[in-house]
Amino acid sequence: MKRFLIILFLIILTASMTLVGVGCKKTDEVAVTEATLMETTAAETTVTETTTAETKATMSTMKVLINGQTSFAFSKIPIFDGDTLWLPGSEIMRLYDYQDIYIDERYVSCSYFDNQGEYKNSFYEVGQTSYSINTDDEEFVEASQAPYSLNGEIFIPEDAMEAMTGDVFVYDPDTQTLNMILGSYIELQKDNQHDLSRIVLKKPYELNDNRISDLVSNLAAGISTWDKSGWDYVAKQSTGWTWISATINNQDWYEDNWEVPDLYLDDTIEKFYKTLDECGMNITYNLIFKDKEYLGISNKEGQGSLRDPAQVDRYLEFIKEVVTHFKGVVDCYEIWNESNIRNSPQYVAVEDYIAIVKKAYPLIKSIDPDAIVSIGQTTSYQQDDSWEYTDKLVSSDAVQYADRITIHPFLWISPEKYPEYYYDYPRIVTEMKEKAIQNGFQGDFWGSEGNYKSYKSLDDMPEEDAPMMAAYSETVSTKYLQRVNAMNIGLGLSGGTMGTNNCPLSVNALGRSALLLSGVKAAGYSITVNTDVEPIRSFSYDVDMGRLFTYWNDGVASDSDKFSYCDITLNINACKHVYAYDVLGGFYTELDYSIVNDQINIRNVIIKDYPIYLLVN
């Protein structure tokens, strides 16, 4: 036990040093290329001089299949030495979507759910036959041989890896073929002979802006826990999205810490913001103001804010204090949050809000000219009062005092819940954008916040929220989240995590789409999907790697792997490669295609009830 605690301490220390030190600095531009993002190579792994010629030959000729049919490419090829099958530890962990993967030249570890749904963590050490498949319970097992390190990977014997994955690796030495049994994998294109590869997640500092954001709020209320959860978020959960909204006050009025000022700062909170900034996150700060120092807890209830000129002055002083303190760290400031909530101190009459915007914008710019100023941020946009409030705002000259207009577009919205709004959303957003531009707006549009949190049933939800909510499973919730993000970004807005419980399926799918969307701008390239499936939704984008298209079956999502095959035509007359990406499954492959009448034709490619991405470069 003592040896394990020392090892665990070294891992945490090394991870913390890596997080805060070299490699996490935010840069003005990140060079993102096909080579750095895809990691597709299946070339022979360079081995040490002690490796036998027979083993080298096995490595260079080993064929890897999924379910006995689809070729798969590891970046570090498994090794068979005549007796033992050695598996690349961290790659297998990524293949299975395990969490919190950590590797250095001596250790590799991860967290995972076992077959009974229990959350566990595993731990392997180079040179030690003893390994753990559940460190919390000090559950150690003896492997047939000790793992070893080679070319940045730790190779683990088959028996030790299958203690975690189950009996899924079958190697045939006669044909030099490794078959991995992965359940319900479905090929992305019929009769495709290209290798399948795993999508490798990247951190924010490795990507350009992908317009995907997360949200944390109420840092002041959880002072004692934020050191753990804050660092945990940055180190483990931030799998590629480049924006985060992080606010010290609760952005809503309930569950706040009324015993501290509106701008409460301690070393833990300061460290949290500094780490976000150093790790490449663009930070949004919501300028919600509870007037705690003047009104205290008496302001927990009431009918509205920012009517009293004296309170307006206090609010402007608060804005000055926040922007001065966070200059160079925070990238965007939102003026208030969900100001349309009536019968609450959170409510600000629209005319008062417009007046505040006209005062706050020049104040913020005078302190930090590079800061983005966002207005709007009303409640879920399908609500009549939210739409009406935003409509009055974008119909006024207040839009000339903003760099960004933000809406909260999706709260459990789907073909099952508010279907009229879901299917009409592109028109609704386009009309809002046009009206703002007509009134002098020259900035950016943003679609933040929403919720696709999964519940087993409505009975599990908070009683006051249940009327607005839908009981989606984790799978269905993740599918809808992928749809609305693809839709939002395709319409020139932004996407986000949308409150999905941070379940591994959702987090990993989001990270994979964030990878593809590095440097994204909405585009208008033509895509035609030839299929009997209805309805179909599709969008196109310019990204760092080329031109990106997405399409999906836009009916009700299913827990099952709902799919068919279709033919696709892209109005592009030349390209080098076309790749298909399944961000839920976590795989991608090069596609077969032809050029007909100056257009790309792709036959028999998969269509599912969530976005499949096509990358043309």
Low-confidence stretches: 1-23, 25-54, 226-236
CATH topology of the largest domain: TIM Barrel
- Rounded Rg: 26 Å
Largest sheet strand order = 12-13-1-2-14-31-30-34-28-27-25
C-alpha geometry: globular
**Backbone structural class:** alpha/beta
Please give the largest β-sheet.
11 strands, mixed
Named at the architecture level, the CATH assignment of the largest domain is Alpha-Beta Barrel
The CATH superfamily of the largest domain bears the name Glycosidases
Provide the residue-averaged pLDDT: 85
Describe the structure.
The chain is an alpha/beta fold and 617 residues long. The protein folds into three domains: 39-185, no CATH class; 209-411 and 419-450, Alpha-Beta Barrel (TIM Barrel); 527-616. The chain has 14 helices and 34 strands. Strands 12-13-1-2-14-31-30-34-28-27-25 form an eleven-stranded mixed β-sheet, covered by helices on one side. The protein has an eight-stranded parallel β-sheet with strand order 22-20-19-18-17-16-15-24. Strand 1 and strand 2 (70-73) form a beta hairpin. The longest helix has 20 residues, at 419-438. The model is unreliable at 1-23, 25-54 and 226-236 (pLDDT under 50).
Features of this protein?
8-stranded parallel sheet, alpha/beta, 14 helices, single chain, TIM Barrel, globular, 3 domains, about 625 residues
Question: Would you kindly provide a brief summary of this structure?
Answer:
The protein is an alpha/beta fold.
List the helices and strands and how they pair.
Elements lengths: L1 H19 L13 H5 L14 H9 L1 E4 L3 E4 L5 E2 L4 E4 H7 L3 E5 L3 E7 L5 E7 L4 E5 L4 E4 L5 E3 L2 E5 H8 L3 E4 L4 E4 L15 E3 L13 E6 L8 H12 L5 E5 L19 H12 L3 E5 L5 H4 L13 H18 L5 E3 L15 H18 L4 E9 L3 H11 L9 E5 L1 E2 L7 H20 L5 E4 L2 E2 L22 H17 L4 E2 L7 H13 L4 E3 L3 E4 L5 E8 L2 E8 L9 E8 L7 E5 L4 E4 L3 E3 L2 E10 L3 E5 L1
Parallel strand pairs: 1-13, 2-14, 15-16, 15-24, 16-17, 17-18, 18-19, 19-20, 20-22, 21-23
Antiparallel strand pairs: 1-2, 3-4, 4-11, 5-6, 6-7, 8-9, 10-11, 12-13, 14-31, 25-27, 26-29, 27-28, 28-34, 29-33, 30-31, 30-34, 32-33
Helix pairs in contact: 6-7, 9-10, 11-12, 13-14
